[in-house]
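Changelog excerpt

This revision adds worked examples to the README so contributors can see how folded entries look when concatenated. The first example is reproduced verbatim below.
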Amino acid sequence: MTIFYPDLSHYDLDRGVTVQPGTVAVLAKATHGTLFLDRGYPILQRQAAAVSAVFGGYHWLNHGDGASQAAFCFSHVGRVPVMVDAEDMPNNSGYNGPLTVPDIVDFVSGLRARGGICNLVYLPRWYWSDHMGSPDLTPLARLGLGLVSSNYTTYSDTGPGWTPYGGMAPVVWQYTDAQPYSGSHCDFNAFRGTTEEFRALINGGDMEPADVWNFDGIPAPPGIEPHPDKNPTWTPVSYLRYVLAPLPAKVDALAARLDKIEKSLDGQHPSAPTVDRPTQEQVNAAVLAAMKDPDVQAGIAAAIAAHLKVV
């Protein structure tokens, strides 16, 4: 089965386009760099909800400062799934040079660190080859991102839009920018799967074992701001990411301190009677004591969550 859906922005609304009954999914432009929120985004979100369409936003990415762009995007979309739109060109608002793979990684990592959802990247083959120099895209695959290609031609389930590049095979193909729709025309995309499979894709629902954690119900912890989407409860995964994200850095700092202590001990005269090197049992006891620190416990949970690709 293949489903087809539009991606839209205020430009489409200005031409009189509205989300039509029977539309299975909609992606709407949400934010652009750190410059503006697309004025069509909240309108299209309401229209998609009215026809029970799967909904996501997309962020137009500028080169550089992915963390600030992620913060700006998250402040507007919260937990709505986001696709990165990686095709910035001269004369576009905020253009600061051609995009790079690290630009995409920085934005996605920054958005996820805030509790955001990002599992798609629109990166056309022409942009990848002509403006990025045909880089290896496996860093994006390692992030669990699905590639959205662009090739405007007659659609088929075996057409050129499904051809891999950069070490990734597209999961969505934007096959036209002129699909008749709502009395006008717009971009249209194909996904080889069901509507529910597409919903799972953009929400990260295909990332086991995260599914078993994907429910609301535990209160926001004391002293922590409410969930960014204003939900008074937290998903356990969101809680782990939001609260425990700093822990890997703390563990690294602890390791550096232990290394410094070890080097200091190595500098002592080995026969000095007043200096005792710690035994393995003492080191084990020190580590167990450190494990009682809530920050250390949280860090280990965050590291496990990251290893399992929990989102």
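The second example, added in the same revision:
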Amino acid sequence: MTAHVRLASRIFAGDDGLAEWTVFAKNDPRSTLVIAGAGASENGVLMGDVLIAYDNPRIEIQHVDHPRVDQAENLTHILRQDSYSRIVAIGGGSVLDLAKAALYLESHGEFSTPKRISLSRRPGIQLVAVPTTLSGAEVNPGFGIVEANLFKKVLWDESLAPEVVILHPQALKGVPLRLIAASGVNALAHCIEGLYTLARDVWCDPLAFDSIERIVRWLPAVKQGPLSPQATGELQRASVQAGWVAFGSRPALHHAICHVLGSRLGVSHALLNAIMLPHVLDNVPQNAWRDSQDRVIAIFRKSFPGTPGGIADLTRSFIGHLLDSPVRLRDVWNGQVQISEVAETIASQVLVQNHPVRVTTKDVERLLGGAW
């Protein structure tokens, strides 16, 4: 377990954690660059607490759907020009990924897989994550970056896991409830996929099951309006644990699909998780995770008794309940993109090798057709 927990050295959660974090930050004076998503920058309470904690930071507001190479290059230039020793990233998974991408570029010089990945922290620049969605990016060392050809490259470097994570009690305030729901499905997908991936680490299983329980119980609260402090805290914890699962038990076909489609279609990673997860689960053989699957089914049926079907049907019903309607690929598809083209790209992704059965381009075409 410690191999996963140590990726984030300090996590401050809730009101008590917020007070402790302010003292912690005041005792750690560094020149600070704040990278805030457009939505997060409008959260006055959240931004105010950051400005109180960090003395006179520079603030860069970023409009990020999927982090691009040119955006990372711009931030890396700012880092080098003004010699900042801390980045505070405030926003959803895309903003946190952009911060990691800038640090990666500053360290490696280009977006290529490093020859050696080390658990040792890269000295000099501290990364502080203040997540405003449930992506899990606040604790894991992976990030995606979109190149000029709209290809999204996914890279991992364990030195990039944020050193400090702030689970601010007001972080989800003002975030569209549909986005919170979809990002919660992303966290759910990290956990479910972590239970059947060929890269599964059984030490992550307890975290996965616990997070699934919290998500299934608390995420439907978005239907009633703004989340209560308790629901916010429970979902933030689930997101952190799901992020650890995604690091320890690497994703497979499902996330390969979401990464490729997101960059090609310009659709949010969270929404694509909500669209694709039930369809991918239809294509996971039961013998790949029978015991774990039965336990996940029991979790769903505890909160939604009487719902018929297997894991794919239960997940489909849960997502439909959250988003008020079924979500389909045809609703977000870019007419200039051919299914056959993206299917070939998806089938060639490294993550696909973690799927329990061999996946061909034709398999991906059929899966996308089913989600249409």
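Reviewer comment on example two: DSSP finds 14 helices and eight strands in the chain. Residues 177-196 form the longest helix (20 residues).
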